[in-house]
Input
Amino acid sequence: MMVGNMVGSEPNAEVGGKVESAMASPDKRAFCTLCPHRCSLAEGQRGICQARIARDGVVIDENYGRITSLALDPIEKKPLARFMPGSSILSIGSYGCNMHCGYCQNASIAQVGPAHVEWRQMEPADIAEMASMFALQGNIGVAFTYNEPLVGFEFVRNCAREVHQRGMKNVLVSNGQINPEPLAELLPLIDAANIDLKGFTPAIYRRLGGDLETTLATIEAMANEPNLHLEVTTLVVPGLNDSPDQMAKEAAWIASLDPQIPLHVTRFFPCYKMLQLEPTPLDTLHALADVARESLDFVYLGNC
Ligand code: SF4
Output
């Protein structure tokens, strides 16, 4: 089941009452401390992620409960290869992202603000109830995915609490660009995660509008979190992150945390701003997977 292009509703200015990741300054600029961008916003200005906005001197999560995409997906599609295989997961997304990859596969919701996407307003309890209703169809819980879910931190947290109260699972699919304090609050609520590791050099992350050290810190925190199942994905883009040497370093670093963390090495297809590139050659993908297997026990090819 896929429900896209949700019917839009009026923005709800009250949703930001729950924001802990924002502070007001004397000159009325508002600061968001949720991710490494640490946006300083004038009144009415949106953050780099386009999901959060300064209102009355604080940054609120304007995309709270604004669901743009909703589907009952196989767990393997997240991708999670070694967490409750064969099950389904109610997958939801909103809009916005704090990175700006030219090859974004969900650009129509991730690389836009509220003026360019339709949504349906839903409360955390609505989502959790829907997840319960789908249990008979093999649903195990809710996956926060599609756009970057962590720019809507408060909704993910509140929804995850509701899901746990119903005895179901929470899955997070994220770029890992979140500061340590909010991450620590969220981790006990997450049962499984797939974190996108977009490359293994600071330069790659700068080019994509992110920070390598932040994603590495998120992966490390998740690897050390009891009861959280972690997998990692690297989408291989020709000329960007297809170096065997970098893959060897990446895999060795993941293995230093735990060699049993699964790594998905996935194939790029032209999209968004990178329509001129060819898909990743299959030989390249297989060669990089072989390099990763020298350090890791479970390496999977994706999009092949
Ligand atoms: S979450 Fe959004 S508003 Fe907050 S610091 Fe990051 S990009 Fe800026």
